[in-house]
Amino acid sequence: MIEWINVSILILSTVLMTFFYISSAGPAKLEKKLGEKAYRKCGNYRIIATIFEFIAVINYIMYFFYPLPISISHYFIWDYWISIILSFFILVPSLYIMLKGVKDAGREALLPDKKHTLYGGIYKKIRHPQALGEVFIWWVVAFLLNSPFLFLYSIVWFPLFHWFCKAEEKDLVIRYGKPYIEYKAQTGMYFPKKKR
Hints:
Structural class: mainly alpha
Number of helices: 8
Distance between the termini: 58 Å
CATH architecture: Up-down Bundle
Oligomer: single chain
Strand content: under 5%
Number of domains: 1
Number of strands: 0
Radius of gyration: 18 Å
């Protein structure tokens, strides 16, 4: 019974994280209705989204101890050390890209800030380094927990994180206007654009 409760909470946490993250990604649009307090409100939504993301991580860990009684194997068919190596090879570049994005975004990485200008650093090459790095970390956790089910579940984060990025970009166009549209034309969403 606890297995089904855990997975149900995981799904609910995923849905709620998505709802609150998408809500947090529109401060410029919301500002038209609420004024400058829209940024604080969106910051609160971002914090709530992060809490639900943390709950989802706990659900991943719980799944290791309480896997669903379904036909999918509880563990990968290979030795556990292979899962550790795979997780390491995914973690190192993902964590680097994510943390570089956090550093270069500054305070805006956590909370929307109206005074923030367009980013520099890694953002001169790609528009969403934080999302690119973070989305793969779900697979790292799945490999460390040696769980095929969690690996498959982690696929859901890819379209969700893409949705997060699209929502952010829609609002950034409202916020920065033409400079952001030009920036989008010059940089890749997740990978650098080839220079012509």
